[in-house]
């Protein structure tokens, strides 16, 4: 039996195909590229859209990316993988991405599958930039897709929260009070402030420009994709990998990991959060497996005559952890694996009341920051804590709606897709979260943050544990001093009133 004969249906689908990925250098894109190379070994080429950044050429950026331990496994398993990667130099904010005529022709004539992963994921980006990257670039790629004679599948990565203006989110298109054409025209012709003014009533239904522009991009695909085999993949909050290629791998700060980092380092102690709400986390490797399967599924469904765009809500299962479970797991693991670079004893209090939260932030975050900065200035060091606290506070405020609100999702298309997978594909492209071991995942999630985001390994563990104990006792003493101070003030006020 030949090697090809042993390929699974998904591997067979990808065999010999050329794939175009935007956002291949990002958090999700890196795992997607790695997994395609490793688990679909007969792919002919992966064209990666990439721009120059910080004086680094696209080629040197790619070399640097493939040097990372994340790609060690693919290096061993598919030694010739690098030959399959072809950089396509382009920037989403430029007309037609600034593609050369040659690159454009290559893409049009060669590509069969598109994964449009790239986006501007900054929550509080200005509306112009968000519209150009998240909507206009999607229009450009759709135009390109329409010219591709071999196109089998075009997957647009959206977000589960693109339609968070409704409480129950189904796997279907929604209508919006503004369309992509108007918004793009505004960004071309009007000043930022005037656009904001014009659309503020509409966009205020979304908590930020990111989710708003992602929604309008979905509207664009609804109106413009025609008979193209398009799928929309909407992941929830994508977080560290559960299994592969490395357990707990993460390199992005946008999900609950941002909370963990600032908390474990001792910078923050109070969080505006409803402990019963679920953070709706999905592991990045499961997300990518479902994404790969979705291109295969879209192709099969369209071949069988399904003409509508398939939409996949890839979200955490209903028995996923709450913010309370998340905190307990992280606190427990941190006790055993504290951080060497921690600045204070890590403890986290969730507060739902807005005013109380602001008071705690001022007393518990900003006041200590001010004191530390004042001491720094006195000893001729540059003050940094106030600035850092303001940055953390701003980020915390924009992510707050996702810690205090909950949405429900229909996931029928994802479930059906899973049931269509062969048993071999279910093993290789595991994305079912039924019976998922959250305890193990959250342990590895913390360990991944410690290792991959904060560069702390076990070589500093012994000293970190000693530091942790010292911080613990300092914190207990501070609590006693604080309790005495409160008691003394109350007693003082009481005696003044009584005399
Ligand atoms: N992470 C999540 O929790 C999450 C949740 C739901 C949905 N999503 C969706 O998943 C996708 C990937 O997210 P991510 O977390 O991987 O984001 P990310 O790490 O910020 O990656 C974004 C990618 O887009 C590229 N990009 C941005 N602006 C570009 C431009 N002007 N020209 C060319 N490339 C550009 C970036 O390239 P550079 O490397 O050059 O910057 C990077 O490769 C996005 O569509 C996002 O909306 C993510």
From TrEMBL:
Presence of the UniProt keyword Transmembrane helix in the record: yes
> What GO terms describe the biological role, i.e. biological process, of this protein?
long-chain fatty-acyl-CoA metabolic process
List GO molecular-function terms, semicolon-separated. alcohol-forming long-chain fatty acyl-CoA reductase activity; alcohol-forming very long-chain fatty acyl-CoA reductase activity
Classify the main location.
Answer: membrane
Database matches in InterPro entries: FAR, FAR_C, FAR_NAD-bd, NAD(P)-bd_dom_sf
Which intervals hold domain Thioester reductase (TE)? 21-290
Q: What is this protein called?
A: Fatty acyl-CoA reductase
Source organism of this protein record = Temnothorax longispinosus
């Amino acid at each position: 039996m030949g090697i090809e004969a042993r390929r699974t249906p998904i591997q067979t689908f990808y065999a010999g195909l050329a794939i175009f990925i935007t956002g291949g250098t990002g958090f999700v894109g890196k795992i997607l590229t790695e997994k395609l190379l490793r688990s679909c070994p007969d792919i002919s080429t992966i064209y990666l859209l990439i721009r120059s950044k910080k004086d680094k050429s696209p080629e040197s950026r790619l070399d640097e990316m493939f040097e990372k331990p994340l790609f060690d496994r693919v290096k061993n398993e598919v030694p010739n993988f690098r030959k399959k990667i072809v950089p396509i130099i382009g920037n989403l904010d430029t007309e037609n991405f600034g593609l050369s005529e040659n690159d454009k022709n290559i893409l049009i004539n060669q590509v069969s599958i598109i994964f449009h992963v790239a986006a501007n994921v900054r929550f509080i980006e200005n509306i112009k930039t968000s519209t150009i990257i998240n909507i206009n670039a999607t229009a450009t790629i759709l135009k390109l897709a329409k010219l591709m004679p071999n196109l089998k599948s075009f997957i647009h990565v959206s977000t589960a929260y693109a339609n968070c203006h409704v409480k129950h989110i189904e796997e279907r298109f929604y209508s919006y009070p503004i369309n992509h054409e108007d918004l793009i025209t505004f960004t071309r012709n009007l000043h930022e402030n005037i656009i904001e003014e014009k659309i503020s009533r509409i966009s205020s239904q979304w908590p930020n420009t990111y989710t708003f522009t992602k929604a309008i991009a979905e509207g664009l695909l609804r109106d413009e994709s025609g008979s193209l085999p398009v799928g929309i993949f909407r992941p929830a909050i994508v977080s560290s990998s559960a299994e592969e290629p490395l357990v707990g791998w993460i390199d992005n700060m946008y999900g609950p990991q941002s909370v963990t980092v600032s908390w474990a380092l001792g910078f923050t102690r109070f969080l505006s959060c409803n402990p019963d709400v679920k953070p709706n986390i999905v592991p990045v490797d499961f997300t990518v497996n479902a994404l790969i399967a979705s291109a295969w599924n879209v192709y099969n469904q369209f071949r069988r005559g399904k003409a509508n765009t398939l939409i996949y809500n890839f979200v955490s299962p209903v028995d996923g952890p709450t913010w309370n479970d998340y905190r307990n797991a992280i606190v427990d693991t941190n006790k055993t694996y504290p951080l060497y670079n921690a600045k204070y004893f890590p403890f986290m209090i969730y507060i739902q009341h807005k005013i109380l939260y602001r008071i705690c932030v001022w007393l518990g975050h900003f006041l200590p920051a001010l004191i530390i900065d004042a001491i720094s200035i006195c000893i001729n060091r540059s003050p940094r804590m106030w600035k850092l606290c303001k940055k953390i506070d701003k980020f915390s405020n924009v992510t707050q709606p996702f810690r205090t609100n909950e949405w429900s999702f229909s996931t029928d298309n994802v479930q059906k897709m899973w049931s269509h997978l062969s048993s071999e594909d279910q093993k290789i492209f595991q994305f079912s979260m039924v019976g998922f071991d959250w305890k193990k995942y959250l342990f590895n999630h913390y360990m991944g943050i410690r290792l991959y985001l904060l560069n702390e390994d076990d070589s500093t563990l012994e000293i970190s544990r000693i530091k942790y104990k010292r911080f613990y006792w300092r914190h207990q003493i501070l609590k006693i001093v604080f309790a005495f101070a409160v008691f003394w003030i109350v007693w003082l006020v009481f005696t003044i009133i009584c005399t």
